[in-house]
Amino acid sequence: MMSNRGYASWYPLYTSSHHLPAWWGRLNHIYNQALPHMQGRRRLLPNSAGIRWENKAGDLIWTHRDWRPGKGATFARLSGKKEIPWTKPVLESGNVYRSL
Amino acid sequence: MKRFSTGNATSRTDTGGKHRRGIARGAVAAASKCMSPTKSSTTTEYLYAVADHLVPRLAEQGIKRFYPEMIHESDVTAIGMKRKLDDGVHGELHCASVCATHRFFPSDFWGGMKAWRYMADKTRSLGLEIGHWFAPHFSPRAPIFQQHPDYQMIDALGFPAGGGYGFKTLVVADWNTGIRDAVLEDLRRWQDEGGLDFLWVDSFPNMGMVQMNYAAKMRTNFAAFARFLGDVQRIGIKSLSFESTSALGFAQFGLADLRGGNLKQNKAVAGQNDFGWWVGEEDMAFNCWFNVEARQRKMSDL
């Protein structure tokens, strides 16, 4: 849902002290980092591999499955704190990438 | 209009009634048991505790927006909550909650504007926006209705419109009346003196939009409440979210998980409040915020 600019609070997964599971907090930080780039046209990748946001500044891709982008494209993976250059040919499932 | 799309992750603490779960449940429950409300160190220190202990934790976990328990003036803060069990069968039946608003302004019961300001400053300093609950209805015991009965929406039977909750519990305001300016002035002061970045508008369709004033030629709230919300943004409370959906802001609603461990949609049950409906339809989640009551899920499913 986050890849589509939606947000889900999973009530049973946090305590009254608001300690979220680690994966949830990680996703929040990645989402905050990705959000400025989630503008423009939104497309579903082939085979439902993820969501691609297309805009003048470049593409922002959430992967739901491993996905092999076209040749020549270069990407950085968002960690939630910084952008990490990505050199592998496949964008791995469950991450967020920004085209450079 | 600023919407959820630019607002990032949001968190809140909840009260009882149709809301649930939250760090202050104990405090609210304690307050609710009182025959009449009594300010205590527990209630007046709530916002300070939230500021010092909860908000930093939320910031660390990437939350960007936050609203606490409803701390405005309500039945709970003004008169407490009574139940049949408290009064006996011949006693007054009075079951309302923090949803029964007296005034949209920080109550002394919860520490007043000073406590709110402390929490708001701390929240903003950590990069979060601070918000509060809002609704188009009030308590039938709200002073403004005592002073101005004509501010109430009147239903087809000639009673104040309770919107299905009953007019002894909640009463919808007619936003075509002077209540609009009175509430706007309170919110302006709240924003100016305490800090207020967004509102979550509860019961927007069922209480705000559906009701008609049969004492005023079946006048609706459609245009008046929309204009009011526009003015809310104009005074600096720029972001609005709504229970259910609205063209005026982003949507927030609960999702039930009706079919246990089955993540695939069961065609026998339709409805967008069913978690299963959204599985495979995530693209429809644009600008929606879900409170999911997932059940029997493995972490890998989620």
Output the keywords.
heterodimer; A: 100 residues; alpha+beta; 1 helix; 32% strand; elongated; B: 302 residues; alpha/beta; 7-stranded parallel beta sheet; two-stranded antiparallel sheet; 11 helices; 31% helix
Whole-number total of structural domains of chain B: 1
What overall geometry of chain A do the principal axes of the alpha carbons give? Answer: elongated
Low-confidence residue ranges of chain B = 1-8, 14-35
Unreliable runs of chain A, pLDDT <50, ≥5 residues? none
Distance between the termini of chain B: 32 Å
- How large is the share of residues in beta strands of chain A? 25-35%
Number of helical regions of chain A: 1
Q: Shape of chain B from CA axes? A: globular
Q: What is the rounded Rg of chain A?
A: 14 Å
The helix-and-strand class of chain A reads alpha+beta
